[in-house]
Specification:
The chain is an alpha+beta fold. The chain folds into three domains: 123 residues, Rossmann fold (3-Layer(aba) Sandwich), CATH 3.40.50.20; 158 residues, ATP-grasp fold, B domain (D-amino Acid Aminotransferase, Chain A, domain 1), CATH 3.30.470.20; 68 residues, Dna Ligase, domain 1. The chain contains eleven helices and 17 strands. The protein has a seven-stranded mixed β-sheet. Strands 12, 13, 14, 15, 16 and 17 form a six-stranded antiparallel β-sheet that branches. The protein has a four-stranded antiparallel β-sheet with strand order 8-11-9-10. A hairpin with a 4-residue loop joins strand 12 and strand 13.
């Protein structure tokens, strides 16, 4: 039986969203094929493991987490990837064969966690470091989209320090490039956190002040008129890609909010994450536009070098019948399972596919030359100008 360590949580404003997505995934993994090992990262950066972490009620009182779980570290010991107790008795609590990150936002989805897993050498599901980092940064994403001639809206970005140093200059630059109304976003967050729209200068300033609370990089975009938002999920790697059904997002607001995604849809009996948001599946767009979205989604997936399952969001101007690629979610809320169900792919099968892709990619990567067995320092006679036993670099 394959031991799957499901990592979630983390120091991110999307912490609770990650918990919801992870509990959903753990309950849908095939228990006859996989031994499921929850690995929860607290908001303080502490790692915990234990069966209690599979229950959503555990997180209603954080004292329960510390009471019924073990505080651990993950590292490689010989040929094993182990979870070791951080307490007085530093025994090995468990080991894992592969990691399934179900994470959202800064410090976990953006390549930081992936870099740690890569350094340890443990196989993991989803995109690698670079693709995860690019997918998290809306500005770098747009640069990649632009280079690959993918349709995007007008945009301008700046650092928080630029705005604090000369607010009038930044506002003038924005207004010279983009007409009102505008959309203002923190560059590296998800789940619609810190996003606002502005119809005039005073609202733009207010929106920027809000976005700066969350990020050091801010992006301002042209607001698409006669808007319909559609999303599609892509599953695969650079060699092959499969496409889900399209969804059309339904909201009473002028843009999809955090409440639309995680609060309003789950008022009865608790949130079910993105699976509970209001939507139409399939999206009510014509065949030509659907094919355009599918083609652009595939190109974007390959251009960034994504892997596993992602969700790609599009903005459609209904009057112009034109689609613009908006952003990529490298680890989407609820892992976008609801977009695959219309394609007769259950959440359980989707997770199985994701793990299989990761295992195949890991085996292929291990076949590549990553280091040399020879030690070029074995005959090293020291450095010019060196001093002492080990020498001193000048």
């Amino acid at each position: 039986m394959i031991k799957v360590g499901v990592i979630f949580g983390g120091e991110t404003v999307e912490h609770e969203v990650s918990i919801i997505s992870a509990v959903q995934a753990m309950n849908k993994l095939d228990s006859e094929k996989y031994d499921i090992i929850p690995i929860y990262i607290s908001k303080e950066g502490e790692w915990y493991t234990g069966k209690a972490l599979r229950e959503i009620d555990t997180y209603k009182d954080m004292d329960l987490v510390k009471r019924y779980t073990k505080n651990v570290v993950l590292y490689k010991k010989k040929d094993r990837f182990v979870l070791q107790n951080k307490g007085l008795l530093k025994g090995i609590v468990n080991d894992v064969d592969i990691i399934l990150p179900v994470v959202h936002g800064t410090n976990v989805e953006d390549g930081v966690l992936q870099g740690y897993l890569k350094t340890i050498g443990v196989p993991f599901v989803g995109s690698d470091v670079l693709a995860s980092a690019v997918a998290q940064d809306k500005i770098i994403q747009k640069d990649v989209f632009e280079v690959n001639s993918l349709p995007i809206t007008k945009y301008h970005w700046f650092y928080d320090c630029d705005y604090k140093e000369d607010k009038d200059k930044v506002i003038k630059e924005i207004e010279s490039k983009i007409d009102y109304p505008m959309i203002i976003k923190p560059a590296t967050l998800g789940s619609s956190v810190g996003i606002s729209s502005a119809d005039k200068k005073s609202e733009l300033e207010e929106a920027i002040e809000d976005a700066i609370k969350y990020d050091s990089k801010i992006i301002v975009e042209e607001k698409v008129q006669n808007l319909t938002e559609v999303n599609i999920s892509v599953l695969g790697n650079y060699e092959s890609q499969k496409l889900s059904e399209l969804e059309e997002v339904v909201t009473d607001n002028d843009l999809l909010t955090f409440d639309d995604k995680y609060i309003n849809g789950g008022k009865k009996g608790g949130s079910k994450g993105m699976a509970s948001a209001n939507r139409k599946i399939p999206a009510t767009i014509d065949k030509k536009l659907k094919e355009e979205v599918e083609e652009v989604a595939t190109k974007a997936f390959k251009a960034i070098g994504l892997k596993g399952v992602v969700r790609i969001d599009f903005l459609i101007d209904k009057k112009k019948n034109k689609a613009y690629i908006n952003e990529i979610n490298s680890c989407p809320g609820s892992l976008a399972f609801y977009l695959w169900e219309p394609k007769d792919k259950s959440f359980t099968v989707l997770l199985d596919d994701m793990i299989n892709i990761a295992i195949k990619s890991y085996k292929k990567e291990k076949s590549k030359v990553r280091s040399f067995k020879s030690n070029i320092l074995s005959g090293f006679n020291g450095l010019k100008g060196s001093k002492g036993k080990f020498g001193k670099l000048k």
